[in-house]
Amino acid sequence: MRRRDLLIAGLGSCVAGCLSRESTSGPRNDSTGIEPDGNGPSDVDPDDDPAEDTASDAVDPSPFEDFEDLSPWTSDGGTLTADDATYYSGTQAARIDVRPRDRRGAIRRTFAEPVDLTGNGLSLALRATADIYPRIQLFDTDGNRLDLRAPVRAGVPFQSYPFGIDHDGGCDRSAVSELRILTYTGGGESLSLWCDHLARTPRPDTPVVLFQFDDGSVTDYTQAAPILESHGYPATTFVNPDAIGGRDALDLEQLAELQAGGWTVGSHAHSHDSLSSLEPAIQEARIREGKQWLIDHGFEAGAEYFAYPYSDYDATTLELVDEYHRLGFAAGWPATGRVPNRLLAPRRGDPDPAEARRLLDLTIRHDGVLTLLFHSMWDLADAEYHVDDFEAIVDYVHEKERKGDLEVCSVAEFESRLVAAESPAPYR
Ligand SMILES: [Zn+2]
């Protein structure tokens, strides 16, 4: 069975009924699902980690895993077992059960010979019973650390997640001697986490940046487009057709003009709902009608692309986006390698200039991929997001782009160059 078929089969067995999740409330902002530091108060700073001994009894020099043999791994929080009933590839996955008394779930292994990870990102297939933001930690032979992270939604079948960079502690990726996978709970919770199929993901030769906009604000046209156009940068606007032509919203003529100027017009679902809170039939209608509206109004190219409202999804949503779209975007960490799963391309929302510089510098240092997402922006003193901040970010991108440190891509270029058609083969 091909990986893709396996994935679909897994989704089909878990549509509707087996998921329950409170609807996401709060500001109309698709980056709110994830704070830059992840889990909030329960997410203990790993610098406090008391267990730093790295005595090695490992026998396998490779850093990557199909988790068919768990003997190199030890538990460092929670209980580690092999699960041959729930897995992504091969015959089993590593299962970590975290009890209320555990502060975290964690597994670790060392390598007899340091491993060279230069030029590679990492992806990991995960499944969890709670919404978590797990880390992969790499340690070099001097103990310097690199933290990679991805958001994982409760109850969703195994997905291969692209891990972006959360903390760069100066780890020499050419000499990685220890690998950890962990998620902090702060104690008091039970959860189960399955890990499988840790794989290298190639990085682009030149770091890549994408500009995206959600919710169809008129400021895409009046504010952002002129700034991007002055540098010839493409962008994508993900719109909710039910809001087009409304107050402070883009109208059809402006959308057509944006497209003529090199923008892509994608779907943000027909209306802006937390999709996981809707019945499957309603979800299907929102996603199908959002796409159909784009096709009916001359935006066929963008109709292939989707951005999850509030970055919210469940198993049904993923199955539907797989059916109706070629690519789906949700919140995640920056500076990934090639995206291993076309349903879950990561992006970062509404950074201020300082945060954007940090994200861009990480992306440049690690030869990564970064999608920057914005919403409305106004030239007003009390604006929630000020257009001057956006302009400062674009200027910084331009400064780096002029030096050849990065390039700005359209979503179509991104798709053709940096999204795996199939999930990556496991490392053997
Ligand atoms: Zn939105």
From TrEMBL:
<feature type="compositionally biased region" description="Polar residues">
    <location>
        <begin position="21"/>
        <end position="32"/>
    </location>
</feature>
<protein>
    <submittedName>
        <fullName>Polysaccharide deacetylase</fullName>
    </submittedName>
</protein>
<keyword id="KW-0624">Polysaccharide degradation</keyword>
<keyword id="KW-0378">Hydrolase</keyword>
<keyword id="KW-0732">Signal</keyword>
<dbReference type="GO" id="GO:0016810">
    <property type="term" value="F:hydrolase activity, acting on carbon-nitrogen (but not peptide) bonds"/>
</dbReference>
<dbReference type="GO" id="GO:0005576">
    <property type="term" value="C:extracellular region"/>
</dbReference>
<feature type="domain" description="NodB homology">
    <location>
        <begin position="207"/>
        <end position="428"/>
    </location>
</feature>
<dbReference type="GO" id="GO:0045493">
    <property type="term" value="P:xylan catabolic process"/>
</dbReference>
<keyword id="KW-0858">Xylan degradation</keyword>
<dbReference type="Pfam" id="PF01522">
    <property type="entry name" value="Polysacc_deac_1"/>
</dbReference>
<dbReference type="InterPro" id="IPR011330">
    <property type="entry name" value="Glyco_hydro/deAcase_b/a-brl"/>
</dbReference>
<feature type="compositionally biased region" description="Acidic residues">
    <location>
        <begin position="44"/>
        <end position="55"/>
    </location>
</feature>
<keyword id="KW-0326">Glycosidase</keyword>
<dbReference type="InterPro" id="IPR051398">
    <property type="entry name" value="Polysacch_Deacetylase"/>
</dbReference>
<keyword id="KW-0119">Carbohydrate metabolism</keyword>
<feature type="region of interest" description="Disordered">
    <location>
        <begin position="18"/>
        <end position="84"/>
    </location>
</feature>
<dbReference type="GO" id="GO:0016798">
    <property type="term" value="F:hydrolase activity, acting on glycosyl bonds"/>
</dbReference>
<dbReference type="InterPro" id="IPR002509">
    <property type="entry name" value="NODB_dom"/>
</dbReference>
